[in-house]
Amino acid sequence: MPVPDVMFCAQQIHVPPELPDIMKQFTKAAIRTQPRDVLQWSYGYFYALSHGEPLPVKERVEMPVATQKNDTGLTPGLLKILHKQLSEKGNVELPDLQRKWKNLCLPMAQLHNLLRLDNFSDGVEWMKFFALGCSALGGSLQSSMKHACQILTNDPEGGAARIPYDTFAFLYSYLAGLDEEITGESVESFLKSLKENVSRKEYMVGLADFSTVQKKP
């Protein structure tokens, strides 16, 4: 009869030397991200950690943009996490998007509603889905583009929130094309005016440039 494994003293317990730091970083990440379902989010966290993927962690604690009357679940911080995790792929497989979405504890019904706004039968073109996420946050085209600039920019928080003109033009044209009340001529005219306002040296668009062109008669 085999002798059962028995712990006789604490010295027999092997604790990997890296474990305390891993748990410390995990705890900080959970506090910053404030997941609705800690167990589901933890699975996503350690899955990403073990596969060398961007972690599902917010840069800072944020207040949800949703109100009690309109609880979308999605926030700028969560959309930024998804962008970090999926943008490099260009076209995203639907199961991968669903898994990342679920691990952020976001409602699947909202994901399905966003996907219905376009035909993603051959995979999900990430920047189009990103634009749809911004529209869920913003409501209006102007507000959606503001969220897009603030999420994509490399400028410090509270700065100009600049992004490449080509990126801005793609997102703006795509979202405007989903609005039946916005004509192609008005989109072309707006982007032409915007292009004239941006710096030829940097070719970047910031919130100030966007607001200036919006105010022009």
Write structural notes for this entry:
There is one protein chain. The protein has two domains: 20-61 and 71-126, no CATH class; 139-217, no CATH class. It is elongated. By secondary structure, the protein is mainly alpha-helical. It has helices at 19-33, 38-50, 76-86, 94-103, 108-115, 126-138, 141-152, 165-177, 184-197, 207-215, and strands at residues 91-92, 124-125, 163-164, 204-205. It has ten helices and four strands, in the order αααβααβααβααβα.
What's the SSE blueprint?
Blueprint: H1 19-33, H2 38-50, H3 76-86, E1 91-92, H4 94-103, H5 108-115, E2 124-125, H6 126-138, H7 141-152, E3 163-164, H8 165-177, H9 184-197, E4 204-205, H10 207-215
Antiparallel strand pairs: 1-2, 3-4
Helix pairs in contact: 2-4, 3-6, 6-7, 6-8, 7-8, 8-9, 9-10
